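debug: dumping io for the single-chain case to check the tokenizer round-trip. Nothing else runs in this session.
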Amino acid sequence: MLTVFRVAQLPVLLTLAAAVLLLTFRDRTELILHAYALALAAIALGHLVRAMRAGLPRAGSSAFDAGLRRRRPRQERLAELEQVEREVALGLSAAFDLHYRLRPALRRTASELLHARRGIDLDGNPDAARRALGEETWELVRPDREPPPERFARGLELSSLRRVVDSLEAL
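debug: decoded output
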């Protein structure tokens, strides 16, 4: 009932205004009736548009719109980076993993850096490699390093690994 009252409210007021205008300006009857008809048509059109809009689904993205939207590429981690992270984590935790997992990677890196930046062969010129790397790094990457006597002994300290990496970066 309230909705009918709201819809009829404006046309009733418009009709009353038209009636007053017709009584006041008798010589302009045709103009007043044309304006009245135009105003009623505008009101009816407004209600029709509102009813049509209410019948449509809410604005949102459809499956079609979602399919057209560009997706952000997934950030996949490099497999090599994940492998290095595993080797470092294992090398820090156990002496066995330090010797057989992390050490070969550090040794490969040291050998390549020595050769590329200083022209030194890690295995062919151990004295020059030892001077270039420093004692702590040399002890870790030297070719004659023995495997640990106890497999589950503590691995490398994090601070020691930082110093080793710093010495490799300084090459």
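debug: round-trip ok. The radius of gyration is 43 Å.
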